[in-house]
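Write out the 3D structure for:
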Amino acid sequence: RSKSGQGSNGGGRWYSVSALRRFHTRIAEKARDVSASPVLIVAFGDSVTQGYTRANTIEPIYVYHQRLKEQLEIRYPLTTFSVINAGVAGFTAEGSLARLNRDVTRYQPDLVLIAFGLNDAVVLGQQGLEHFQKALQTMIDTIHAETKSDIILLTPNFMVTADNTNIHPTE
């Protein structure tokens, strides 16, 4: 876990992800010892993480963390990676705090990918920004307190703010 001191996010702590020390240590450990447990990644998020690509369609082979796993396996061929898909459609960051232990910390992952924002924007709009920030900070603090995991916060996807005939009304 790589703490980089105080940030400007309302007094909370910022954490550097540039080193990903735990993650790289576990990759090397697994490459040296085939009997070591797999390098474990938990992808924690909303429908994008779960794999929804359009209404009523989950396509797990196209989800970002599956693609990451494939690239890691190419880059580190002597290392086994396991990914837990902890994405749940319709959940906001704040609403997902209740499942943080069930879906993330109990597994003691080496890396946690946190990807929220779409539902937060749709449900709460800009008025919900403070709740979104606090929920993310709580996730970071809890994961760091209860695990040795490195964390990557993924940038929320863009939000369409105007009518677009290329997007189905239910998507």
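Helices lie at 21-32, 47-50, 64-75, 93-96, 100-103, 118-124, 129-146.
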